Structure formats: C-alpha cells, structure tokens
Prior knowledge:
The structure holds two protein chains of two kinds. Chain A is 39% helix and 10% strand. Chain A is of the alpha+beta class. In chain A, strands 1-2 form a two-stranded parallel sheet. The N and C termini of chain A lie far apart (50 Å). The relative contact order of chain A is 0.13. The model of chain A has no long low-confidence stretch (mean pLDDT 87). By secondary structure, chain B is α+β, with helices and mostly antiparallel strands. Chain B has a domain at 239-413: CATH 3.90.1700.10. Helix content of chain B is 37%, strand content 20%. Chain B has helices spanning 5-18, 29-32, 55-67, 74-82, 141-165, 170-178, 189-203, 210-221, 228-239, 302-306, 320-323, 327-337, 364-370, 399-413, and strands at 21-28, 40-43, 87-90, 109-115, 121-125, 168-169, 251-257, 260-265, 273-276, 281-284, 297-298, 341-350, 356-362, 376-381, 389-395. In chain B, the strands form five sheets. Chain B has a four-stranded antiparallel beta sheet. In chain B, a hairpin with a 7-residue loop joins β8 and β9. The longest helix of chain B has 25 residues, at 141-165. Chain B is globular, with a radius of gyration of 20 Å. Chain B starts with a helix and ends with a helix. At the A-B interface, α3 of A face α13 and α14 of B.
Amino acid sequence: xxxxxxxxxxxxxxxxxxxxxxxxxxxLKDQKVKVLQMNWKPPAGGNKKIASxxxxxxx
Amino acid sequence: MKVDxxxxxxxxxxxxxxxxxxxxxxxxxxEAVPGMKKNMILHAGPPVTWDRMCxxxxxxxxxxxxxxxxxxxxxxxEELAASxxxxxxxxxxxxxxxxxxxxATWSMPTWVLENKTFGNKAxxxxxxxxxxxxRYGAFSEEVIAKLKWMETDLAPILKKALEKxxxxxxxxxxxxxxxxxxxxxxxxxxxxxxxxxxxxPYLVMLDEDREKxxxxxxxxxxxxxxxxxxxxxxxxxxxxxxxxxxxSSVIYTMARNGTDFGIRVAGLGGxxxxxxxxxxxxxxxxxFTAEDAAPDIGDSTITETSGIxxxxxxxxxxxxxxxxxxxxxxxxxxxxxxxxxxxENDTYQIPFLDFRGxxxxxxxxxxxxxxxxxxxxxxxxHKDPGIGMVGAGLxxxxxxxFDDALEAFxxxxxD
Lengths: 59, 415
C-alpha cells in the first residue's frame, strides 16, 4: 500500500507560516504549535476604490 | 499609460541622490527669501487662514508681530492678524521650511543653502532651542528677547565665522551625523557637535567681544536641535528639483500646519492634497499630558521626505528616549519604509543595517499598494498659544491626503 507523502508531515513537528487572518495563527499558538504570522495585506489593503485607481495606472 | 511612471521615478531618484546641499550664507528672511514682503508671515505646512490656525501657530504669529514691532501686545497682534492686512503663506511656497509653527518674518535671520548640482536654494531660520520658544507657540518677553539676540548677535557672528570657514558641505555632515547616532529630525546631537567643530576655529579668530563669542558657543552647545534648522533646508533643496517631473509619483513635500497635513507630488506640480492633522503618540515633559497636545505640526517632515528623520531611525536608537518606543521599533520603522520608497540613499547610510542606504524618495503608488504610511517623529506643542513645547513622539499622517492625491494622479495619467 502506498503511503501518501502528506502523511509523513503529521509525524513531524509542524512548522507553520500563516498568511492572512491572524486568528488562524492564534489558534495554532494556543495548541503550542510554532507559527510565524506573515505581515501581508491584500493589495491596496482590500480597498476597491484604491485598487481600481491603481489598475488605471497599470499597477 | 500616458507616461512611463517607472522612468519618471528613476529620474526623480537620480535627482535626489545627485543633490549637493550646501550652506552658503546667513542672511535675513526679508533680504533673501523670494517673494517675501514686510506684511507677510511665512508658516509651516499647507496654506491656512488665521481663523483656521491652531493654538501654537496663532501664538507664533502673535510673537512674530511683537518681534517685528508691528503690535505692542497680544490683543493688538491678534487684531492685526485677523484684519486681513497680514499675508499668510506657506514657507514651502517660498523655497523655505520652518520647524513646528514655522513662522518666519521679515527681520529674522535665515540660513541660505544651495543645491550645488541644480542651483536651487532653500531657507530656514536659526533654531531657538527647546521649551518656551516661538516655533512652539510661545511669545513671552523672554522669547522675543532671545529672538532679538539671535538677530543682533548670534546670526552676525555666525555669518562672519561662516565667511572665514567657507561653504559647508551638508551632505557630508549629515552622512557623518547618521553614523554617529543622529537621524536628522529629532536627534541632532552629533550634527550640532560637528557644526561646532567646523566653525570653532573661525569663531575664535573673530574680532568680537570674547563673551559674545562664548555665548554663541554656549547657545549651540546647549541646544541639541541647532542642526535641525540645517538638515531641514538641506532636505528641502535636495527634493525640490523633482517638483514638476511629468509622470513621477514621488512625494516632494510633506508638511503640517497643526490644522491640516499636506503633501505635494512631483507629477502633480504645486497642488496641495490635505487631510486633518493627526494627534502625536508621544512622551511628555513633566507636568504635561496628551490632553495638552496640539495636533501634528511643522515642515520638519521634509527630513523624512528626503530619506532621513523617521526614515533613518535605525541609525539613531537613542532617539526612543525622546520620542518613545524601543530601539527595535526604530529599526522596524526604517525597514518598513523601504516598502514605500523608490531608492536607497548612496550617501546616507545606517551602520546597524550593514551600512544600507536610507529609504529615499516616497512613492505615492507604493503607499497605495501596501497601505503603509510614512513614519514621522516629531515634537509636540501645547494646544494653546503662549505655552510652548510639551513633548515629542511618533505621528502617522492622515490617509485622506494620499487617497486624494492618488485619485488626481490616476485622473491625469491613467488610462
């Protein structure tokens, strides 16, 4: 029987980089899992008006 | 696209890096500053009328009118300021800059700087020290007396010493100061010391009363901010040549008058974009609290605009004792500013970051893309006229002025 490589992951200590909602990282921290929260925001901070102005400028 | 923004910004970056800010003279505002008039008062930030001026700006205007002998007391000065006979214009629109209220009047002495690469000049009055001073809105007799001494003794003596020394290369001095723990905005202890070292041999050679010369030395020695009024016009004449570069999104002015925070963008000419001046998160002098503070004020953000000041805080960890935060915060501020700038300085370097050049040339489009606002450190004035400095801290500009500028930029250059 083939063992899927992903199963190997669960035999090791998890090393997690979280991108996006910080609460996901907080949940892992609560379970004593090492997690690095990436400092990331959607382009223009998710502001549609700013994003459309940037698009007009080819960005 | 109607223009090549990247190319325009490269040109802007190149002009900023090529600048050679140099002290060439000490003159008076009336003689040197273009467009100055006897009934004109220059002030910090974007344009503002008397009725909209904040407390410290009003205090400095009252003090300026008393200093010029145009009013005998506070009441007369307030009536004159409100009468319409006094013209109020931004320092920035006269190639000048002024810290805090930034008030400059006809008789005040001014540093004269020239950007030797492009030939443009910049002006700034001489620094009065901290505490109860005009630029923080104080106007008592002792404040006016000190300003008079600066006019009759300090400036003429320094002018003579400067003539003997010859022109001062500010790029060299600022780059040295950054390597000695200054950032050129709220920490200028090294720069002030370097200036004294430069001028000392020529000051002692002057045919002047020794006590007068000693008083000049003592005044500079006891005022760590003396060099600020040189870093500011250096920054001003450094960034000014980018004004008007078609298609450039580089910001060449950030300034506050205590009511509004204003910016100007290279590709949008002289147009101001403003938002409400914000409150400063800071440390307070004994006896004062955040409730005493006026909103963010002054042209000193020209330092950040040129790639020093808050943008070079990693060079000045000790500044956090003055403006708050931790040394790690200071490093983080500088690192974050690389996200919103177009280049790294080839002269102003930060030892702690392996001598990496300071983040230089703020890009309006990068601010919009990342949502990161420029980091500013600043002094805090009392909200009422006549009191003076109450602390120092860190400020964030209002988002609105950047959003409005982006809209205008997209309208002019977008598809």
